[in-house]
């Protein structure tokens, strides 16, 4: 297809599919839709008749947010709505009346709460309680009419605004078939926990002024959702709130495939001690440097968990995202080899370095690995890693991704690496020149060096005074 003249010949059903895919790939609110309806009469007609193009209602800090929401309500017909409210401190600095506009936006979208499918709220703690349908009200059990709600994500974007005590619990059981819940920097009543149908749960970060669930509440909560949970994320350093931290309640998560722990604490340790994950295949581990230095939980993890009775805990893991500040010594390297014998994909977090110890470890660890993501490094270091790995491992890497290429970029290094892997991607570079050895060449954009990349559609500039003409 070369342009609108070719597109307009397609049937309406195919055009709708193309438009819906384009809207999913372009997250900036209405940017893709505005381009479509501005193209020609037929595309405008088809787009206006497709409710799924207009069911994402997103707050934008300008005077037209209400008009945008009403437009989406009208064109989405009866389709389930995805509500997105994002209010950051930066937005408030740029536009002083952002909070007032956000309050008006909340009042407007609450009218359509019976159509909510998802709610993503990243806002200051003064706004979050205003989303009244989300919170349990024992005085009026019929006040919550959200039969379609599946996803709730709440994050306080102003966690330094003073002490905050829990005042609400999430909507009660039977109100909606919640599948995904994420709570960060926002305290709620965790007991009782109504939502046993959860498939995704993300908790944290929390702090002393916005307390996390107690260890007792967490164990009970996880016990209620263990049967169907697919993804579990624990973020932040939670301080223990129970007199007895050794609550030995064994939970089995038969369906859990993804476990993310950023960062370690008593909660994470208790979880690994007392729970089993027979279906786990993706594990994300990061150790905060403050915890490593003060509490030595890293040593406890390596010794007590992986070398103790739970040594086989992670044998089913095939994908690992790892972050250990300070690098890998010989003992940690051997522990990681033993703990993840069948690993196929590995990713090192951005705060790790490709130093000599890490290169040595990756060159001889995990023979079945096919995909590797590396942090910031020089191409020469990446080449040395692959050369050492070729000497030790029979299986070649299929995919190699480098987050940041630093130093001088030599064509010889780049071509050598490209000849050893099927897919070779450099996400970013900090070099000014791309050179052949001994010969200066013109500068290349890093996107031209990628084996694969995702293109982006630029939003149409301008504001929204003529939105009603859509």
UniProtKB/TrEMBL annotation:
Occurrences of domain F-box (ranges): 4-57
Protein name: F-box domain-containing protein
